């Protein structure tokens, strides 16, 4: 168990359903919607039920059950302007953005939202999104080398004047952004998240990001990732926070929760899941060490397309709360939550699960680990 640094409290984020089809590729009913009005109501519910962050997904065209999509940065800004405290993270693909342009957008969003805008850099897995728009498709490690430069350029433009950067993918010459993000102790620069599961993603997170986002993992899986991430961060005199994806099925009884999970998998849209599995198979296997997104995912895992079932947040409020706190003890700072029925389940989580999490965390403060 990793105990190098343990957060005072677990932070919670939720997946913004700005993409149609819900978060499971299944024909089970999902009481959710990708439209703006639903998402504004959900964002306000979330910030009043203990959620500090929301993550807007990035999809550019129909794929594997996601027929319709709202663009992530504009949708994130809209949610920021409709809420008071929620921080909204926009997922973006290097290769489809010029980093100085995104830096300008981010600075504006920072000013308009009072410092609540953040960016999740995802290197891309869906080849067609690049090739259909006439953009080159790079192999896995090259995509992450590009993401490393992307993160560096964003940071430099937000913090420096007369920026020069000469990389293999981006060239910036004597560029000064004004206004910059506020960058005060109360409002630091927009937070940078690095998503991914590969060795290259962990290296980028440890060297350049504020946060590292992992797909769903069990205890052993996330502990190994955190150990590797911290080794990279220490080598560069840095500290990085960790977010973990988890699909939450909280019900009054464990049987009800397990039955819901079973129904999700039994009603999986098999052609869509198999199509997704075929599209992402190269994501992990194309890396040198065969470690990466979906490298060890089964069909059942891929029904929730970010491996959210692996985190095993399924059961009663008490069972889920205990598991969340165990992840915190292993170094997880944030749980990125997905739900079947977003509006009602976010409220259920805030009312029934979160108070137990906070009490368990308080008990650990009173009774430190190892005592």
Automatic annotation (TrEMBL):
Q: What is this protein called?
A: FMNH2-dependent dimethyl sulfone monooxygenase
Which CDD domains is this protein grouped with? Alkanesulfonate_monoxygenase (cd01094)
One GO molecular function term of this record is: monooxygenase activity
Please verify whether the record's keywords include Oxidoreductase.
yes
Q: What is the lineage of its organism?
A: Bacteria, Bacillati, Actinomycetota, Actinomycetes, Mycobacteriales
The record ties this protein, via PANTHER family, to: ALKANESULFONATE MONOOXYGENASE, ALKANESULFONATE MONOOXYGENASE-RELATED
Domain spans labelled Luciferase-like: 13-333
Q: Which domain of life is it from?
A: Bacteria
